[in-house]
Amino acid sequence: MNTAVVGKLLKIGEVSASSGLPVKTIRYYEDLGLLSPIVVRSESGYRLFNPLVLKRLDFIKRAQSLGMSLKEIHLFLEIHDRGKLPCREVKQHLEAKIEEIVKQIDALETLKFELQGLLSGWQEQPSANCLEEIICPNIQSEPDEISI
């Protein structure tokens, strides 16, 4: 591993190697302001990172794995950067994620029931007399039922 450290600041390649994130992702996070308090530019324009960036990137990756958007993560990091723990806000967002998941599960159960109903009445060789008007009669309405 290249240990290109300037003083106690890390170059982006070292951050990438240590975090397992591509350089492009780290640049993107910086552009979004997710890394703002712990990244500076050298005189020659290189990004230099406080070693705490690794903990911040770990938080970002974990929050994303829990379904948090980068916008939500930005909110949490802003609270943290003001010297407060964002645990209350994280909890609220996690509870909202659970509600979304429950709704998605309900919608998937409804879809599953509909698919099972379609399959239970499936015709392997449906009548081809309406070939020009219907693509698959197993999932479409009869031609006279279609409203244009």
UniProtKB/TrEMBL annotation:
Keywords, sorted A to Z: DNA-binding, Transcription, Transcription regulation
Classification via Pfam families: MerR (PF00376), MerR-DNA-bind (PF09278)
CDD domains linked to this entry: HTH_HMRTR
Entry keyword Transcription: yes
Domain of life: Bacteria
GO molecular function, one term: DNA-binding transcription factor activity
Residue ranges occupied by any HTH merR-type domain in the UniProt entry: 9-79
PANTHER family: HEAVY METAL-DEPENDENT TRANSCRIPTIONAL REGULATOR HI_0293-RELATED, REDOX-CYCLING DRUG-SENSING TRANSCRIPTIONAL ACTIVATOR SOXR
Name of the molecule in the record: Heavy metal-responsive transcriptional regulator
